[in-house]
Amino acid sequence: MSKSIFRLIGNTPLVEARTLVKNPNVKLYFKLEGQNPGGSVKDRAAYNMIKSALDRGDIDEKTKLIEATSGNTGIALAMIASMFKLKIELVMPENATKERVQTMRAYGAKVTLTNAEEGIEGSRDYAEAKVENEGYFMFNQFSNEDNWKAHYKTTGPEVWEDTDHKVTHFVSSMGTTGTIMGTSTFLKEKNKAIQIVGVQPTDNSSIPGIRKWPEAYLPKIFNAEKVDQVIEVSEKEAREMTKRLAEEEGIFAGMSSGGATAAALKLCDTLEEGIVVSIICDRGDRYLSSDLFEN
């Protein structure tokens, strides 16, 4: 039976860590978001943002769309926009990996690269200027309620059901914070005792997909009350764990997933018992042109 590509978004596998966890009373599960058709957890939010905007009549095929992205959201938006015959311009720092830029263009998106030194903040400023001065429509994943609601509708229920309602801790990197906000909202409705753990980089660490935002750029969808604990990881820890995930668990992912795993293992070491679920955000093949997997 044929399926729409949209039906393949979500319902990603949950697999148990085989070797990394040393605490015998704790089980750690990885949710493999790289299995989404666009290769990352961002397929969920991108689909919900586009479909909801179309359903409300906020956009149509004539709308000029634009979005600032560090990579995965852009790929997801490019894929889904093409399926709805929408034109979109994606803005990202010029130091983004070649694979990401080429993938967005392969889906038919226009890609604009901004000054690397200005980071994603510079990309956001560029996109917002186009909205203000040239009539573009921006989804603005950082303040779009449809971002976190995607995870309330899908990721949270999947984690709940796939652990037979036994999950005790949920660990997620924090970028736009959509994943952790939506999943937290759902899981806390089911069991307020479930602990939600966010992951941030240590000062002066650069981990793609994980951010410690300046106050002016803090995502508007973020609600600190929905996160019980924040664990910081260094770039070195994230890099090393990304390699260990591939070598020891057979999970080929990006650095944000390595960071989340490093945080999850720190958490596991502190628990008397528990069932921990950690998000593996994407696949490692979109980082091959970087130095992430070099010895």
Q: What does the model show?
A:
Strand 4 (88-93), helix 3 and strand 5 (110-114) form a beta-alpha-beta unit. The model has no long low-confidence stretch (mean pLDDT 95). The chain is built from 9 helices and 10 strands. The protein is 38% helix and 17% strand. Helix 1 packs across helix 5 (145-153) and helix 8 (235-249) crosses helix 9. The longest helix has 16 residues, at 119-134. A 6-stranded mixed sheet has the order 1-2-10-7-8-9. With 295 residues, it is an alpha/beta fold. The chain has helices spanning 42-56, 72-83, 98-106, 119-134, 145-153, 155-162, 178-190, 235-249, 255-270; strands at 14-16, 26-32, 65-68, 88-93, 110-114, 137-138, 169-173, 195-201, 229-233, 274-280. It comes from Zunongwangia endophytica. Its cofactor is pyridoxal 5'-phosphate. Belongs to the cysteine synthase/cystathionine beta-synthase family. InterPro entries: Cys_synth, Cys_Synth/Cystath_Beta-Synth, CysM, P-phosphate_BS, TrpB-like_PALP, TrpB-like_PALP_sf. Keywords: Amino-acid biosynthesis, Coiled coil, Cysteine biosynthesis, Pyridoxal phosphate, Transferase.
Quick structural gist:
With 295 residues, this protein is of the alpha/beta class. It is 38% helix and 17% strand.
- Calculate Rg over CA atoms: 18 Å
Q: What is the string of SSEs from the N terminus onward?
A: EEHEHEHEHEHHEHEEHHE
Amount of beta strand: 15-25%
Oligomer: single chain
Q: What is the helix content?
A: 25-40%
The pLDDT mean sits at 95
Largest sheet, strands/sense/barrel: 6 strands, mixed
Strand order in space, largest sheet: 1-2-10-7-8-9
Overall SS class: alpha/beta
Gap from first CA to last CA: 44 Å
The low-confidence runs, each spanning 5 or more residues with pLDDT under 50, are none
Shape: globular
| Quantity of strands, as a count | 10
Please count the helical segments.
9
